[in-house]
């Protein structure tokens, strides 16, 4: 008898990230002594998030192809610049108001500059590619090749530094992006290694999600209720509007921009990594993880709805005859990696 566990998990928005994270949080909340009781490899699963993530970013880097057409570079670079630019502006504004610490009371309890920047900085790649495959132009799918550079804590650390908050030593900044760069080099030197390493990306997502979940106490999760919902809506609105106009300026219909207005599942791992690199963010990391995870789920539901609505207004847009050929020539060597999303995901 077969039980469709994978299908059931994937029916949950961002399921491969959120379901293991919730399981880890439940164990920690109701059976906090579990890792100490079992020890050994079982105990290591509860504390190995950073190690698993380091391997994850090497494998993700291997999936990125250096070769791209000018259009893909222009489109992906523009969306990347605008998405990160919005996060920088918000980081500067909220950094002046909140500093490194989270709000400790009231209806905004748990919100922090770290949570806002982490939620805004990174696009759900699996969701973006699926939406562009359905509503966009074929060559716009390849833009995610460039946007993948959002992955990981590097740009969040840079954003927090630009915002005038606690700076990170250059060694820490390099260390945050080095696994991704190493993976990119390996994957572009050897297509077989790219295919080999890329296949590991979706496999590792539930493992680091579980380890992250074990650091959460569900007695505090209720704080992410309406606040998490509001942050998720804010990601779609606050990043979606400038991304829409940026896409239009680069010759698109605006659909690609709106499809990029989401939070990547991997972003839920960023607060813990940032706090490990700089203790000034230790108090903000746990509530930020909860809020960012909520944004992953909310945007995974809301972004497709908004994208479909916009596609009904502006239409798919006329493709040039060679779009599909150009895209195939430039990104065929890469193995598409779908992060956490309702369709498979980052």
UniProtKB/TrEMBL annotation:
<comment type="similarity">
    <text>Belongs to the KdgT transporter family.</text>
</comment>
<feature type="transmembrane region" description="Helical">
    <location>
        <begin position="196"/>
        <end position="216"/>
    </location>
</feature>
<comment type="function">
    <text>Catalyzes the proton-dependent uptake of 2-keto-3-deoxygluconate (KDG) into the cell.</text>
</comment>
<keyword id="KW-0769">Symport</keyword>
<keyword id="KW-0813">Transport</keyword>
<feature type="transmembrane region" description="Helical">
    <location>
        <begin position="222"/>
        <end position="245"/>
    </location>
</feature>
<feature type="transmembrane region" description="Helical">
    <location>
        <begin position="168"/>
        <end position="189"/>
    </location>
</feature>
<keyword id="KW-0472">Membrane</keyword>
<feature type="transmembrane region" description="Helical">
    <location>
        <begin position="103"/>
        <end position="120"/>
    </location>
</feature>
<feature type="transmembrane region" description="Helical">
    <location>
        <begin position="289"/>
        <end position="311"/>
    </location>
</feature>
<feature type="transmembrane region" description="Helical">
    <location>
        <begin position="37"/>
        <end position="59"/>
    </location>
</feature>
<feature type="transmembrane region" description="Helical">
    <location>
        <begin position="141"/>
        <end position="162"/>
    </location>
</feature>
<dbReference type="GO" id="GO:0005886">
    <property type="term" value="C:plasma membrane"/>
</dbReference>
<keyword id="KW-1133">Transmembrane helix</keyword>
<keyword id="KW-1003">Cell membrane</keyword>
<keyword id="KW-0762">Sugar transport</keyword>
<dbReference type="Pfam" id="PF03812">
    <property type="entry name" value="KdgT"/>
</dbReference>
<keyword id="KW-0812">Transmembrane</keyword>
<feature type="transmembrane region" description="Helical">
    <location>
        <begin position="80"/>
        <end position="97"/>
    </location>
</feature>
<dbReference type="GO" id="GO:0015649">
    <property type="term" value="F:2-keto-3-deoxygluconate:proton symporter activity"/>
</dbReference>
<dbReference type="InterPro" id="IPR004684">
    <property type="entry name" value="2keto-3dGluconate_permease"/>
</dbReference>
<feature type="transmembrane region" description="Helical">
    <location>
        <begin position="12"/>
        <end position="31"/>
    </location>
</feature>
<feature type="transmembrane region" description="Helical">
    <location>
        <begin position="257"/>
        <end position="277"/>
    </location>
</feature>
<protein>
    <recommendedName>
        <fullName>2-keto-3-deoxygluconate permease</fullName>
    </recommendedName>
</protein>
């Amino acid at each position: 008898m077969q039980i469709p566990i994978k299908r059931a998990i994937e029916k949950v928005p961002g399921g491969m990230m959120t379901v293991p994270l919730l399981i880890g949080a439940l164990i920690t909340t109701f059976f906090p002594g579990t890792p100490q009781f079992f020890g050994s490899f079982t105990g290591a699963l509860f504390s190995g998030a950073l190690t698993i993530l380091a391997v994850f970013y090497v494998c993700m880097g291997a999936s990125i192809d250096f070769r791209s057409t000018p259009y893909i570079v222009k489109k992906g670079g523009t969306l990347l610049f605008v998405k990160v630019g919005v996060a920088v502006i918000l980081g500067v504004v909220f950094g002046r108001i909140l500093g490194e610490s989270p709000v400790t009371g009231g209806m905004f309890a748990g919100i922090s500059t770290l949570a806002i920047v982490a939620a805004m900085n990174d696009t759900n790649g699996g969701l973006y590619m699926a939406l562009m495959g359905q509503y966009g132009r074929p060559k716009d799918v390849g833009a995610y090749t460039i946007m993948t550079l959002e992955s990981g804590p590097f740009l969040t650390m840079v954003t927090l530094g630009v915002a005038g908050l606690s700076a990170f030593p250059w060694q820490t900044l390099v260390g945050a992006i080095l696994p991704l760069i190493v993976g990119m080099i390996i994957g572009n030197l050897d297509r077989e290694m790219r295919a080999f390493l890329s296949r590991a990306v979706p496999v590792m997502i539930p493992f680091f999600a579980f380890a992250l979940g074990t650091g959460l106490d569900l007695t505090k999760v209720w704080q992410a209720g309406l606040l998490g919902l509001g942050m998720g809506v804010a990601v779609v609105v606050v990043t979606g509007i400038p991304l829409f106009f940026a896409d239009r300026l680069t010759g698109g219909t605006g659909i690609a921009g709106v499809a990029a207005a989401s939070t990547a599942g991997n972003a839920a791992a960023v607060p813990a990594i940032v706090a490990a690199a700089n203790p000034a963010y230790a108090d903000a990391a746990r509530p930020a993880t909860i809020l960012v995870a909520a944004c992953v789920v909310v945007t995974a539901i809301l972004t497709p709805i908004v994208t479909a609505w916009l596609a009904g207004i502006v239409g798919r847009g006329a493709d040039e005859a060679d779009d599909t050929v150009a895209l195939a020539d430039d990104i065929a060597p890469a193995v598409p990696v779908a992060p956490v999303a309702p369709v498979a995901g980052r």
